[in-house]
Amino acid sequence: MKEIKERQDTFFSAFEGYIDSINTASFQKQDKTFKKVLFVSVIDTLAKCAYPHKSNAKRFTSFIDKFCQWKHCNKVSLTHLIRLLSIIPDSEFSDLRKYIFSIFDNWHRSIEKDPDLIDIQKLWPKNIEYEQNHPLLKFNAESLTHKWLFYKYRNHLVHGLREPGYGIERKEDTEPFYHTIGVLHEENSFSRELVYPLSFFNCLCRCGFKNLKTYCENNRIDPYESYKETFGTYWIEELN
């Protein structure tokens, strides 16, 4: 047990240092974007400790849900759902449309006011067979939740080195939010942009780190066991 405690201390001390280093780092250009890339890399790595046998997407979203204490992560983004419904005329979605637009009429562009996943799932049509190219083959209600949108954000950062959408954030922003911007060259046209600010990335990292550390200590888990196949001389895991 002493050996596991020592390995836990080494592991979490290292990651605490990584998070502190990201916060104090300074980049000449794209400082915010680069820091977000580093934060999601930390979340990715911590998530593997908690869920070593899940796919990358599943363990990332599961970690956000179970360890990061984001109370709105299972709310469905109203802007994304409305956009989806606008391009899918299927009559099976009539009840969902009626419910969503009743919310939208009194919506104050707050994530807190986004609908809960469970309420959307109750109205989401079941057992529908779609043609091969139907848009809904790639979607379900959960794919529009904030935890999955955060994973999409992560993919834009990691694979494209850019942030999705056209949202504008300020240094003092600490929580996700929506804001409205006008569309260039289109009179009386605007978009509602979803924003996940830098401070929120830091918050998720620190909260996930803290709760994972407690989880490993309470369950006597050696965190290095989740990464043992990545250690070795050879870069191809199967060769070590």
Number of domains: 2
Q: Which secondary-structure class do the elements indicate?
A: mainly alpha
SSE arrangement, N to C: HHHHHHHEEH
Quote the beta fraction.
5-15%
Rounded radius of gyration (Å): 20 Å
Mean pLDDT: 92
Instruction: Specify the biggest β-sheet.
Output: 2 strands, antiparallel
Strand line-up of the largest beta sheet: 1-2
Q: How many beta-strand runs?
A: 2
Which of globular, elongated, flat, extended, rod-shaped describes the shape?
globular
Q: Unreliable runs, pLDDT <50, ≥5 residues?
A: none
Residues in helix, %: 40-55%
Through-space gap between termini: 27 Å
Summary tags:
240 residues; mainly alpha; two-stranded antiparallel ribbon; 8 helices
Write up what this structure looks like.
The protein is mainly alpha-helical and 240 residues long. It has 2 domains: 2-74 and 146-239, no CATH class; 78-144, no CATH class. Helix content is 49%, strand content 5%. It has 8 helices and 2 strands; from the N terminus they run H-H-H-H-H-H-H-E-E-H. It has helices at 2-24, 31-50, 56-67, 78-86, 94-104, 117-123, 146-160, 198-218, and strands at residues 177-182, 190-195. Strands 1-2 form a two-stranded antiparallel sheet. A hairpin with a 7-residue loop joins strand 1 and strand 2 (190-195). Helix 1 packs antiparallel against helix 8 (198-218) and helix 2 (31-50) packs across helix 3 (56-67). The longest helix is centred in the N-terminal third of the chain and has 23 residues, at 2-24.
